[in-house]
Design goal:
Number of domains: 2
Number of strands: 30
CATH architecture of the largest domain: 4-Layer Sandwich
Strand order of the largest sheet: 6-5-4-1-16-17
Helix content: 25-40%
Strand content: 25-35%
Shape: globular
Structural class: alpha/beta
CATH superfamily of the largest domain: Metallo-dependent phosphatases
Largest sheet: 6 strands, mixed
CATH class of the largest domain: Alpha Beta
Number of helices: 15
CATH topology of the largest domain: Purple Acid Phosphatase, chain A, domain 2
Radius of gyration: 23 Å
Amino acid sequence: MSEKKLVLLHSNDMHGHFVPEIIDDQMTGGLPVLAGYLKKTRKKEKNVIYAIAGDMFRGSIIDSEYLGLSTIDLVNLLDPDVAALGNHEVDYGVAHLLFLEKCARFPLINANLFVTLNNARLFQPYVNVEVGGMRVMFIGILTEEVLSMTKNEKVIGSFIDIEEAAKEVGVICDNYRTTSTDMTVLLTHVGIEEDRKLAELLKPEYGVDIIIGAHTHTFMDQPEYVNGIPIVQAGWANLGLGRFDISYDDEAHRITDLQWKYIPIRKGLARPDPVMKDLLNRYKNETDNKYKRIVTRFARKLTHPSRIQETEMGNLYADILQVDSSFDIMLFGSGSIRKTEMGPIVEYQDMLENTPYDDALWMVKVTGKQFRQIVRHLFRDEAWLGHTEFYQFSKGVRLLYRKSMHELLECRYQGREIEDDQELLIALQNYHYQSFTEFLGVDIEEVKKNMKPRIVATTVNNIIEEYLSVNQGLDAHVEGRIEILE
């Protein structure tokens, strides 16, 4: 037997979290230590591959100030062998993404984003990485959420379900996987639940050996095997990375041993890379000079621990946007809040990083019956897995739901049960309005019959900044606006 060793390292969902932060009294995350660990591992081990499973962009001032160009610059120093597209890679527009691809010194792959006019792929669907006499094929698969970000890009499309994605993996493997391919790895950005479905659909003949996932920010202690294929994710925000140690039989053309572990990025893991530290500090100093000013002081630190529950920050932001408005209820996307905690001192940078998706605010009119339908849709079984859009509701709303019976026990506004023929004005951000039917489960064309939707604010963050700066000492609590039984 001719045995070879391979170390396969991977990250996902960086979201611009490049600067180390203190978590539980310990310095955690950050690109300098990650770069140092990569450098140390490449020096110690003979055969090393480093892959990124998407969503490098969005979540920090350093990223958004330079529209992702700073991110590409920093990630270039990490020298990944391959990176797959995530849904947030298209946040700055597809045309800009194609520009950023030219700036990347590493291949960006995606198999199922294409031009609708002629079905031409926008990106290379796969790449072969050769190391130590081994050839590893990586294929990039993107979440269907990219459709929500490209609704105005009429010539751009994507396969919309996991079945089609599985077929596309088969097409690529049938056409490009050869006898010289030693391993096949999927870099997916579809979420852990969809990864499970994808693994089930993959035929053994495709030869997929590993699925490295992303999108749901899942922390794992060990791989999850589905259809014999190990599925892994490495959390998010550069808090850690995943590591495979693989033994490969070159004569039998098969993996003989595979070990995986999650490695937290903490002080002491490796010596911080000085070149990365210097480049990061240059970007940080620029953004600090522009954005490091105090906007407000909360009464205490406010939290947003989960996107599938009512939270303190969720209530605060929903209320801020609803107060003195022309609508009754604000539905603020839980995923629009990016920090798990903030305050008591809130700097301008904190504010922008917490709500980086600054867009317009739409108002629509729904009937009580439609509102109940929306709530039931939001509380469907998928929601509790964290794979669907979830919302924070402004003051006056009371929702009581029993999961086991799929029963909406209470649906109240201002203390009174909402009647079917009642009319309510609700507001939501542009991103959610553009995907109204998909995200809220009610046909937007039916809603338009109640009233022509209209934009009531051109920017969410201007409203938030003004309210925070004028109202010092703000506090918010979980009040039972959303209560889920069982």
